[in-house]
Amino acid sequence: MKKRIDSSTKVKLSIPVRHEYLDKKACLREAHELKREGKIHGMSKKQIAREIYFHAVMLHYCDRKNRQGWWREHADPINLRDGGDTLLRRAAYAVCWIVKRNKTDEK
User: Fold this and answer.
1) Sign (positive or negative) of CA dihedral 44, 32, 13, 61
2) Is there a contact between 89 and 43 (Cβ–Cβ < 8 Å)?
């Protein structure tokens, strides 16, 4: 039986976006460390990695296109919560993970 997380006790963890997060393997390593240290609960390692990767991609895009506004403001830092983000945002993270080529794939 899955443990239900009470939304009133969700932990919020803010981590800054780093350039290395454009590499999916770096995102998976960071997610592994966050899980190992017990900083995030109710999310799989892959869910955490996808959210980290999405934020890095959005920040990179905004910086390359010199974009400001909502997307740029919300790209950094990455705010992780126990139990994860909304279903719609998790879907966007998953699509980005699948569709966007990894930085290291382009070499």
Assistant:
1) negative
2) no
Which residue pairs from 57-61 have beta carbons closer than 8 angstroms and sit at least 24 positions apart in sequence? 57/22, 57/96, 57/100, 59/17, 60/19, 60/22
For the chain, residues with pLDDT lower than 50 are 1-3, 5-8, 106-107
Q: What is the pTM of this model?
A: 0.81
Closest CA to 30 of 40, 99, 105: 40
The pLDDT value given to residue 90: 95
How many structural domains are present in the chain?
A: 1
What's the domain range around 63?
19-101
* 46 assigned to some structural domain: yes
